[in-house]
Amino acid sequence: MGEVTEQDQEWRFVQGGRLLPDAVVSAVGYRSRLDRPCRHVGMPSPALTLVLTFDEPVISGFEPSGDDAESTHVVLGGLHTRPAYIAQPRVQSGIQLAVRPLALRRMVGVPAGELRDRAIDAREVLGSGVEDLRQRLAELTSWPERFAALATYLRANTAEVTSGVRPEVLEAWKWIAWHRGTGSMSALVRHVHLGERQLTSLFKAELGVSPKAASRLMRFEHARQRIARAVRSGAPLDLSAVAHSCGYYDHSHLVRDFNQYAGSSPSRWIAAELRNIQAGAGQRAEEFPP
Hints:
Keywords: DNA-binding, Transcription, Transcription regulation. By secondary structure, this protein is an alpha+beta fold. The chain has helices at about 105-110, 125, 130-140, 145-155, 165-180, 185-190, 195-205, 210-235, 240-245, 250-260, 265-280, and strands at about 1-5, 10-15, 25-35, 40, 50-55, 60, 70, 75, 85-90, 90-100, 120.
């Protein structure tokens, strides 16, 4: 847990540990108190986002103007390759989960591809039980109690098998994650014994993105995690070194991805999110091998 306080501003983030590792990458409890409402940028990642808020509803969309904004207390967001925009009220608290895309079938019986570039009221696919869960979590008084209740819900509502997911898609996703998004397409199709066109078709149907797009998301997530770790540790940040270590051609290549995914350069994103990152924000959306 981390906390930063400046005047009447506060950010607090609590890591939930490994609640259900094969379905949920990470869970973070959060509470913030700001001097005025603001807008947060939700960057693309290789995970679905499930948010259960205890205070004001989440208002989010993909248009900077907010014309497509949806408001709900339980939001489920699919994979996307452009920034999302989230309105942040002065006081907010809740839990945010990074859900493995291929686990969605096990949870609700539908592929993650149906949520591509969408953020919906999670009750549409998870049922009324998730609203009961949200209310119970809000009533509990400690984070350990909340995470324990959430883990019980996940275990009870997630099947033990990855039903309906083609094994080639599952293996391709694991391969992309293992290579942190830097493996070649030719090596990937050889690994899963499928043609590029067929694998791309299966990927888009199941996940809503192509293998190439998934690889870019993995590579960007690896770079974002490295940047966040450096910021939290107070170590000097060499973006050129980050770009090189994460498989980008050069620093400008990393900047292009940031401009697409975050709507700004890495330096501007760090400046805007500095206090949040220092306080422990920026949960993992994928676990990479050492």
